[in-house]
Amino acid sequence: MSYQKGPGSMITTPLTLTYPVPLAFSLIGGVLLAAGLAWGALPLLLGFAGVLLVTQAWPGRAALLLLCAVLAGAGYWRQVQWQQPNVLAPWQGAIVTLRGDWDGQFLHLTQPRAVVALAPKPAVPPGALSVRGVLVSPEGRRTPGGFDYAAWLQLQGVQEVLVGAEVRRSDPERGLRGWFRRGLSAHLSPQHAALMRAIELGERSDISRETSGGTGQNIRDEFTRSGLAHLMALSGQNVALIVGLLTWMLVRALPLRLTLWRYPLLIAAVAGFVWLVGPSPSIVRAALMATFALAGLWLGRGKLDALGVLALAAIASLLYQSAWLFDVGFQLSFLAVLGLGLSPQVARLLPRSWPYSLRLALVVTPCAEFATLPVVLHNFGQLPLLSYFANLLAGTLMAALVPLGFVAGLLGPAAVAVNWLVGWLAAALLWVVDVFGAGPQLSWGNISPAGFAAYAVFALVAVLALYRRVAFWVLPVVMTILIGATTLPPRLHPPREVVFLDVGQGDSTLVRLPHLTMLLDGGGTPQSDYDVGARTVLPALRALGVRSLNVVVATHADADHIEGLISVLRGIPVAELWIGQPPTEAPNPDPNLSMLLRVAQERGVQVRQVRRGDTVKQPEATLTVLWPRGTPWSSADNENSVVVRLDSPHFHTAVLGDLPDPLESMLGVGKLDVLKTAHHGSRFSTSSAFLQETRPHDAVISVGRNTYGHPSDEVLGRLQAAGVRVWRTDQMGTVRWPF
Fold first, then answer.
1. Residue 544, helix vs strand vs coil
2. 3-state SS string over 406-453?
3. Which tens digits make up the pLDDT trace of 444-501?
């Protein structure tokens, strides 16, 4: 891009948009329209494709407008066609044996033609697989900020989940893919081999099972916390490094008169790489852009317009799979490239005395992070504050690790020749992940449509400032206005609600008042490595905009109530931890409660042993502890559960932990609007006498898939006889109750 200087004017840079740009936005508008998101489609179709055609001096304006309409129609049609009938629906709930091609993530059936997810995911290499289990529909988002498993599987073309998957037969994959995988594992430790398969092939199943030797944390989670998760999502970095390696090899190997043929050979190599790793959104985007660029060089067109090539890649990707538009990987990939495209302009803002290559290297990562910021915060709830430095170090290692890993894959079992060096580099990369994974995080909640719109306005003004279309002093003014417009309304109307989180077979209840935020229990998964606190409760808190907790209540020492609180205390500031019975008073101290108290001490959280009569008064409501009494009632954890009643002028509820039936009548709870039933609807709680005393209009049962018979038919019958409406988290997900 050249600079132009007019008389008495500041230096400006040409800002032009090529033909593919409005075509891509028209296609996106058609997809959004078919998905029922007219609020997003109409501005694109009418605003962008229409207004730009009027303002830009393009020849053939009418023909271009017609092409925009055609692309919008194509996007609409592709999205409608994407909704395919579920051919496996007749077998839902049945025990079936399935045979197909296992790619390490999903099972691809040939008859009927369908894709199935397996739970638990078998620890077997890709290849032919025979597996037996129960066929069920995947669950959607169950908590605010939670992972929408059903939507994600649908984007991958998966229709059903095989639960309780039991492997009957497994035949490792042969051919080039099997050869390549063996090369990535030859003479490497299981941890390093899993890392290389994630980096080179995008297979993250094995690395998800590995834990760091230094911290004991899950390695895949540490990649996310350090801001390096994109290294395991195949993208332009992989394609660029591999194309660079092959270019060097071809230039060295081919006679000078044949060097023109290196372009079609490289295009074929890029296509082969996509076949090898599979067509994911980010790798297809990178491969298409590389193909367009190589084709332009081959045909003598020289360097193509980056924004136009990106738009062409978007058109081709969405015509192939329109649903990718809603895939986080697709969004991050394209937004990151948009940010990288601005890096030359940003680099020119740094001192001219610095070498241009240094200036560019310093700004590429911040540009990509700025472009992807709202998507990252919205979907992951946190932003690593040291990711810039982590990427500088990791990027240097990846520049050597990716080409070496590719060579190792081509060598197959003979990869020992290079894998000794691969092992050292993999260990260095894991060290970087360990160090920066322990760094500070910026927590965030779900971003509203208004928040995305505000960010888009600010980003547009920032781009115009970079291209000298507006003055830079406009940026802080616009930012101040947008921050006020998006943050002032929530502050004027703070939340007043009780949120019964769906944590599966467990308990977790959030009380939100303008001056008090309290979490009672945090769920847990006994005899499982799934961390409910880190993977369910914390994302829900961030999505709800909860930045800190005034009080955390551990009702009693059962794992399905307090195990998740350990990660909550580690992940968010907490002022006080309430307990009913400390381990010193218990005949058999519970390890989860002991760990919770140890973490509270490490984090500087005040621990308070509460008793009947303890009260917290707020202008909007009063919280009263009804149980336990001054001394332990018995040696059973359930009988010492902390019971809290919440009263406001027009709303009354109580959370009873796992308190059993005989003790309910001793509480003196009184009239309730909503009853949080004790012990997940166990038949030993929620007696008819207790229902007669409390006379609730509604009852919430926190329950998940279990073998205990919860909720009991007897309890459901008693609730029905009392005319109480029942809300179950296993059927409805998280229940939010405003008051």
1. coil
2. HHHHHHHHHHHHHHHHHHHHHHHHHHHHHHHHCCCEEECCCCCHHHHH
3. 777 878 888 888 888 888 888 888 888 888 888 888 887 777 766 666 677 889 999 9
Q: Which of 659, 674, 651 is nearest to 727 (CA)?
A: 674
Q: Are 641 and 581 in contact (CB under 8 A)?
A: no
Dihedral of alpha carbons 93, 537, 707, 97, sign: positive
Provide Rg for the chain, Cα atoms.
Answer: 29
Q: Residues 513, 621: contact at Cβ < 8 Å?
A: yes
Helix (H, G, I), strand (E, B) or coil at 735: strand
Q: How far is CA 504 from CA 6, 160, 242, 731, in A?
A: 66, 20, 44, 10
CA distances from 571 to 225, 238, 265, 293 (A): 11, 33, 50, 44
pLDDT band at 573; cut points 50, 70, 90: very high
pLDDT in tens, 593-623: 888 999 999 999 999 999 988 999 888 889 9
Q: Is the pTM of this model over 0.70?
A: yes
Residue 3 scores a pLDDT above 60: no
What does the block give as tokens for 200?
A: 């080179």
Number of neighbouring beta carbons within 10 Å of residue 61: 12
622 DSSP β-pair partners:
617, 647
**Helix (H) and strand (E) counts for the chain?**
29, 21
d(C-alpha 69, C-alpha 195), whole Å: 45
Flag whether pLDDT at 628 surpasses 60.
Answer: yes
Strand-pair category, 651-655 with 674-676: parallel
DSSP H or E run through 713: helix 713-721
At residue 583, the pLDDT reads 64
